[in-house]
Amino acid sequence: MSLNRNRNFKFDWITIILFLLLISFGWINILSASAQGEVLSYLDMSTPYGKQLVFILFTVLLIIVVLSIEAKFYERFASIIYLISIMSLLGLFIFGKTVNGATSWYGIGGFTLQPSEFAKFATALAVAKYISDLQTNIKNIKDQLKTALIIFIPAFLILLQNDAGSTLVYAAFFFVFYREGVPQLYLMLVLSVLTLSISVLKFSVISVCIVVTLIVFLHHFFIKKNKSSLYKPFLISLSCLIFSFGVHLFYNNILQTHQQNRISLWLRLEKDPEKLQKMKRTISYNLNESEKAISSGGFSGKGFLEGTRTIGKFVPEQHTDYIFSTVGEEWGFLGSSTVVILFIFLILRVLYLSELQKSQFSRVYGYSVASILFFHFMINIGMVMGLIPTVGIPLPFFSYGGSGLWGFTILLFVFIKLDANRINEW
To answer: Contact, 357 vs 369, CB < 8 A?
Structure first.
């Protein structure tokens, strides 16, 4: 009995240590971003850093519960967990609380709970469950569509809540598909769509279509040396033309004004200096102040609680989605690089452990965890530094918020439990 008891504690401590380092450094920066210069009271529930510390303490209990549950439970009840998650998203349309234009929260006393943060781990479980089913062959189009539907349902419900940022994260599951054997053609198609969309917005529909048509026909005649059938190059050129006009119409008629402005600033589409300055004072104010805060940190930073732009509250709500700007100002290039390295190590560690899994369910879930963390990490830091358009998603284990912290914790520690099941088996 003692031997079995000891084996139950053989978790991957490297992953757990990386998690603890990130969550600790995250809280330190929330403290910096939300402190008002008063005497610090760490359990003061009127301050973001006080609330976050309570959230972290509750996280310890949450981890104990997740690790105490038998690993097979997550596979056996994956479908039920997914359905409960979908019901919680549907309930928002009746009982939801609207914050900043998004109906994504339940109000519980003085706290709010965001079910979309928990839907990620529930969807990851459902995807892993379906793909690992003996009757599923992910290389078949029928099974691909069914798996895509599992992902689409929560993503669509979240989009209806006016939370485009959280919806975007569900694209991370594409990496899972690719690992499990989806044809490479899909990857080429996704890259082509992204390149074509950006090119159409940056230049024009006609110019992009002319360039693509020239490339297609030159490839057809001079590389493939096929001078007989013009069916394929003509079809590709026509598809390019239709898609390009679709992108143009979507950008100008479907996207909201603030979304158009963010993309316009990112691609530098706006040429009017007066309008550009107005946009920088309004729609991109947070981004401009974030970039200034990060650049002012220099190589080693200004020091803990010494960031002048952080103290001055130049970046609104800096303790949430823009928390990385506090890291940049107070800890400089060294601190920012450390955070990036920790995230990369964590993601690579999860991928490494995923490849060691004996069951397809655990491997698929592990890749889902790594993909979701990577998407959040890449988009949030890229957004704060102005490398990609502004999208409202948190930095895992760093940004303020109980729902986000608990959602990411469950997501990661369910995998740690699944991996522990592999370690503890003879």
So the answer is: no
Q: How far is CA 54 from CA 326, 356, 361, 400, 407, in A?
A: 21, 35, 33, 12, 15
Q: How many CA atoms lie within 13 A of 73 on its CB side?
A: 10
Percent of the chain clearing pLDDT 70 (strictly above): 93
| pLDDT the model gives residue 192 | 86
Q: Residue 103: beta bridge partners?
A: 98
Token readout for 120 is 């990620």
- Strands 102-108 and 111-113, by their bridges, are antiparallel
Rounded to 10 degrees, the C-alpha dihedral 22/25/27/31 comes to -160
Q: Which two tokens stand for residue 423?
A: 């370690």
Please check whether residue 175 is in contact with residue 367, taking contact to mean a CB–CB distance below 8 angstroms: yes
Distance CA 182, CA 190 (A): 13
Structure tokens at 48: 């973001």
Q: How many CB atoms lie within 10 A of CB 214?
A: 11
Collapsing DSSP to helix, strand or coil, 321 comes out as coil
Q: Any idea of the CA torsion for 285, 263, 113, 347, to the nearest 10 degrees?
A: -110
DSSP assignment of 90-143: HHHHHH-EEETTEEEEEEETTEEE-THHHHHHHHHHHHHHHHTSTT--TTSHHH
CA angle in degrees (0–180, nearest 5) for 253-257-259:
95
What pLDDT is attached to residue 225? 63
* CB contact at 8 A, 181 and 135: no
Reported confidence tier of residue 23, pLDDT bands at 50, 70, 90:
very high
Residue 180 CA to residue 177 CA, distance in Å, equals 5
The phi-psi region of residue 45 (left if phi > 0; otherwise alpha if psi is between -120 and 50; otherwise beta) is: alpha
Question: How far does CA 21 lie from the centroid of its chain?
Answer: 20
Chain length of the chain: 426
Write phi, then psi, for 134 (nearest 5 degrees).
-60, -30
Rounded-to-5 percentages of helix, strand, coil across the chain: 70, 5, 25
The residue ranking higher by pLDDT, 426 or 200, is 200
Mean pLDDT, the chain, as a whole number? 87
Alpha carbon distance 126, 80 (integer Å) = 9
Residue 251, burial from CB neighbour count under 10 angstroms (0-12, 13-18, 19+): middle
As a whole number of angstroms, the distance between CA 76 and CA 35 comes to 45
Instruction: Extract the tokens encoding 90.
Output: 């549907």
At residue 176, the pLDDT reads: 92
Contact 34, 47 (CB under 8 A): yes
The three-state secondary structure class of 265 is helix
